[in-house]
Amino acid sequence: MRIADIRATTVAVPLEAPLRHSNGAHWGRFVRTIVEVEADNGLIGLGEMGGGGESAESAFRALKPYLEGHDPFQLEALRFKIANPTASLYNNRTQLLAAIEFACLDLIGRHLGVPVCDLLGGRLRDRVPFASYLFFRYAAGEHGEIRTPEQLVAHAAALKEAHGFTVHKLKGGVFPPDHELECYRALAAAFPGDRLRYDPNAVLSVAEGLRFGRAIEGLNNDYLEDPVWGLEGLRTVREQVRIPLATNTVVVNFEQLASNVLRRSADVVLLDTTFWGGIRPCVKAAGVCETFQLGVAVHSSGELGVQLATMLHLGAVLPNLTYAADAHYHQLTDDVIEGGRMAYSEGAIAVPSGPGLGVSLDREKVARYAEFYRETGGYPYDRDPGRPGWYPTVPNERFADPDISVDIRP
Ligand code: MG
To answer: Based on the structure, what is the number of domains in the chain?
Structure first.
């Protein structure tokens, strides 16, 4: 089996509502690049990457001369062919490599008639539990604004009712810490048997991170995720707050993982199949974490069904996955895979059992959402549609006003 062609298609899939975060917002849709790697035997492997447009599509086209004739089974060679670590200073292709790795694993699985998790050691679980990823949101359509503790708790209760979540993650860093603390405490009070995690995307000052961490010490926390920026900032918080610290920002490669093993800043490493360069590097990193008794969880950088399948196969094989995974997935209104969105049951999603990643493209949906991308285009992730002229700083000194309702609907 040899790689014969690579195709990349940008799609935009609507979210229920714009999702606010410390850097700005997801403006009401996810823009993703769907990658198809076709082999000379006619099989097609699927990949996915965040973002899109002409620059992303041309970056994949530019890989064709590197990959034409490559055997998809040769995954280590693939890594050095396109993301040699000593060349990556000049051509960081980690995310491109990840999408191609997904597609090659999909091809291998389809070729052999086995699911990807069977190529990675075999599944230890058939379902991967997820947290209810909660965002402050702008209003859209029939969905009201989520800004106050009452609105947030009502939203979490609706998600729990619909999907069965028993772990709740609050994406913060939008409003002043005191307001977000009130929201977090309201979640704890509303769901006393459930577990919680808070992630302000590293924008708190160390002093605010310490204050927030100490204030939630008595709650049923999984961990405190990236309260502040940097390994040194996290270490300072970790030394003074009795909650495990997690990161998806400053332990995202093996060099940083080594630093974190030698001088621990984070207790839990959030593995992202895109940012680590594929599913296999995440499995390797989880092995290092197992050796050094670090926790792991599955990170979400926004996903459609192809990426979600990579997260499910990863989650299926990790013995040390003791935390629920994160996914933005329930915030979407649709998907581009056959059968529509995968379903949550009791807060978990079943690991696909078909060959390869176990998902196929719904061609009509891909065409529809490629057209939606052409109509709507990209959006600046690091700008906030409700605050024209604002830009983020770290630590953030200009949080949004929690007392003011902002309606960005035209
Ligand atoms: Mg995070």
So the answer is: 2
